[in-house]
Model the fold of this input.
Amino acid sequence: MPPAVDRGPLTKRERNKAANREAILQAGREVFVEMGFGAANVRDIVRRTDLAAGTFYNYFPDKESVFRALVEESATQVRVRVREARRRATTLVEFVEGGFRAYFEFVNDDRDTLELMRRNAGTIRALFDEPAIGAGTEELRRDLDDAIAAGLLPGHDSEYMAAAMVGAGIELALSMSAREPPDVEGATALATSLFIAGLRAAG
Done:
């Protein structure tokens, strides 16, 4: 892959485009939290901005694409944290617990993500095949393979295991987000116990 090219400071037009896109995303986040995805429409989002209705469509074709961008934004951030936690692990327990804890703590600490999940659990479940979530599953599969090769984890079907861990993590995060206060420790403990037992049994 060629090195990234430093293009220098953004032009005024580029700054305006970035600001407009961010304004739409922020408005979308507020609308989806307050109204829920199903009840919201593009007009509701545009009303929360200073932009003309037609400007919206220069950035997003519909409300679905706004919601998807919000989920992908959070997923990209959490993948970095979770992968760092797994790579610091020196034992099976640290690998499993560290990854799940990093994920649940991110959801709990990022109030925007927490509230979006609380209000739109069903819509988020429908995005399991989105690239950002799929990328996280593939990264976990590679980390599982690396941990097997290093002797940290017993051998197992990493493709199935990655799919199971990501699916369970998302479902637990959705359940956790519905509680007040969110139970990070309980979600982490349950996920850890389930998958440590599964990994040991697989080996």
Notes: Residues 64-202 form a domain with the Tetracycline Repressor; domain 2 fold (CATH 1.10.357). The chain has a mean pLDDT of 92.
